[in-house]
User: Fold this.
Amino acid sequence: MTDPAPANPGASGSAALSTLKQLKQAEVDGESRLKTLLAEGERALAQLRSDAEAAVQATRAEVDRTREASVQSSRALAEEEAARIVAEGERIAKTIRAAGSRDLASLRDKVLDVVAGEFRKGTSRPEA
Assistant:
């Protein structure tokens, strides 16, 4: 069985050519759309990278500011503590000076007795 020949061979050839032209145009349009989408994707990716880099730089700057503020705060607290320690030492020194030389001599003798006693305990010599 063979297919009957078309009644108008020129008309079917023209339809096939028209279909091929439509397919070719669809292919060209598809490639054009694909190139456009790829370019848009590349631009969007470049923008995201740029935004990410800017965010990283901003975060680094904020970390540096926070670290510097922390160092300054710690330094201020250390200076306050040092001032309290010095003030306490001065207060104790003033109290000792006010006690007079008599009490100092007594304190000196007590300190020497304790130190000498510790020294004597640490040696193997018999005491005289």
Residues 24-123 form one domain. Residues 28 and 116 are 106 Å apart (CA to CA).
